[in-house]
Amino acid sequence: MSALPHVEDDIGTPPSQTMAGQRIIAVDLDGTLIRSDLLVESVFLLLRYHPLLFVKALFWVLKGKAYFKRRIADAVSPVVQTLPYNQPLVAWLEAQKKTGARLVLATASETRLARDVAAHLGLFDEVLGTENQNLASANKRKALVARYGEQGFEYVGNSSADLNVWSSANVVHVVNPEFGVLARARRIGRMGQVFDDRASYLRVLRKALRLHQWAKNLLVFVPLLATHQITNLDLMLNGVLAFVCFGMCASSVYILNDLLDLKDDRQHRTKRNRPLAAGTFPMTHAMVWMVALLVVAFGVALAALPWRFALVLCAYYVLTLGYSLWIKRLVMLDVITLAMLYTVRVVAGAAAIFAPLTFWILAFCMFMFLSLAFVKRYTELYDAKEQRKGDAVPGRGYQLQDFELLASLGSSSGYLSVLVLALYINDAAALTLYGHPKLLWVACPLLLFWLSRVWLIAHRGQMNDDPIVFALRDRVSQLIGLAFAGTFVLASL
Questions:
Q1: CA-CA distance, 353 to 349, in Å (whole number)?
Q2: CATH number of the domain that residue 92 is part of
């Protein structure tokens, strides 16, 4: 991209004579030029990389928005090269510039960040941003009128804050407008271009909440099955409520994780298509959903389930928060934590139905889920190796040469889970629950085959990021799962 042309610093400076008769197009940044918000991204960057400074930043707000934005920009800066730019708008601006229009980036974002964006695109002749005052709404309108005169400029925006600016513009351009904004903009008149290429809100919301990942929460039913209480309707209802609570809590965590990982996700082959990384889901909406889901999850847990379940759910959230902020970048501790996050779902299921947790269930789950956690990391390293992106995976502590070691550790852990199952079959506990415990031996080769196949698929680079989600979608895994469950049913007769 070309370097940024000369930029006037004093927003009150009148337009130069060279601008006389020239078409001026002022463009908003957040939600318009980019499908994101630089301030929100910067705040979550601060939380991820400087959590202690984030606490201090809460007091910066008291000194005004301009001061807050300046201090945040002093500490962190989003990578402008990977921001989700509105490409149809960028193409239109390029065409207008070729006709001789003067392009002005006018934004409430901190000036330094706005200049970085402008320098990357190489389109804008001037940049107006927040310095000593927050350049939004009325302040932005005053700055543009002082510079170009009343109705001396066109303005491209998207939000209700832009209505004030549009009232003084000679042409109104609207991009992916907030609810009700387009109708209000039309009432102003002088309508120009309308850009709206957004997908269905519900479809994007479903992806942002990762509803397909709720399948992992089926693990809360394991204690119900292991204790042969699946026909107990009261306990089954508790299991369903536990499943829903864990789903809502997990979705809240997924949103937080995506907000914290924007920088790394945009460099990933598939994760860059996630709604927040791609800018298809508004960040303000994401934060509202994040808080609402968490409040409802704990509200239902405290009101309708045993207090022990709420305690386990709280432990899950704290562990996940620690994983998102810190642990995921620590070699080996990250996979152990992932295995614990899977296992805690089983623990929560036991707490929801007052079932005791046996040594066998915990040992089996820990080894099994540790193997699957290694599959997840192995897949990320394999993808990085195929794309030849340096020697490490962004946001992780592993080097590319580690992927063979991860395969060895992961497959060994999986086979240990089969050993635990085999030892359980010969334990006295199996004799009390199953009428024909020897039939359970059929489950061992089934599990050996499935684990070996999972690792073979991962070795070939064909594994989904999450092996459990892969298993639920894979036809062979489904058949093995039915045969595995059928073995336990027959053994219990």
A1: 7
A2: 3.40.50.1000
252 CB burial (10 A radius; 0-12, 13-18, 19+): buried
338 and 378 belong to one structural domain: no
Q: Do residue 183 and residue 224 come from a single domain?
A: no
- Of 195, 222, 247, which residue constitutes the final position of a domain? 195
Segment 258-295, tens digit of pLDDT: 999 998 889 877 888 999 999 999 999 999 999 999 99
Helix (H) or strand (E) holding 244: helix 233-260
Please report, as a single letter, which amino acid is at residue 102: R
- Name residue, tokens 């024909």: 436
Tens-digit pLDDT profile for residues 75-98: 999 999 999 999 999 999 999 999
Quote the CA–CA distance of 280 and 413 in Å, as a whole number.
Answer: 39
Q: Which of 195, 230, 258 is the last residue of a domain?
A: 195
Asked if residues 488 and 442 have their Cβ atoms less than 8 Å apart, the reply is no
Entry field: residues in the chain: 493
CA 184, 186, 187, 188 torsion: positive or negative? positive
- Is the pTM above the cut of 0.90? no
Smallest CA-to-CA distance from 85 within 284, 281, 278 is with 278
Number of domains, the chain? 3
Among 332, 333, 316, CA closest to 254: 316
Q: Are residues 250 and 324 in the same domain?
A: yes
72 located within any domain = yes
